[in-house]
Amino acid sequence: MFSIDIFSRTPVYEQIISQIEEYVSKGILKPGDKIPSVRALSVKLSVNPNTIQKAFSELDAKGIIFSVPGRGCFIAEDALETVKSKKREKLGDLRALCEELKTAGVTKDEIIERINLIFNNEGGDKK
Fold it and tell me: Are the beta carbons of 33 and 75 closer than 8 angstroms?
């Protein structure tokens, strides 16, 4: 379920956070689901347990997971809303990107066409 790209410039703990957030947003992990223990994930990914703990601590601070002493970590009830809210904050980035594309000569129709392809699950990777 979890994988680490050792060649990525993204720190390992951030990769773990991103994967858990992605699994929550896609419905793979649901409220109340138990996630692997620090030790189990550390062994599976060959990563220092402190790195896993750092990711879990950040996820806990964000309200995406919670821990029950002696039982493990679980997905929080409002994890999906928390992840969606975080993603909505990126709309400001979209505005900046659209302004940059507009300056570069990309038309509104080209941008809308690409967005429609993405929302219609047709990809949009073509150049």
Answer: yes
Calpha distance 100→123 (Å, rounded): 22
pLDDT in tens, 59-82: 999 999 999 999 999 999 999 999
Upper half-sphere CA count for residue 73 (Cβ side, 13 Å): 23
The separation between the first and the last C-alpha atoms of the chain, rounded to the nearest angstrom, is 31
For residue 72, give the 3-state DSSP assignment.
strand
Percentages of the chain per state (helix, strand, coil), in multiples of 5: 55, 10, 35
Decide which of 67 and 87 is more confident: 67
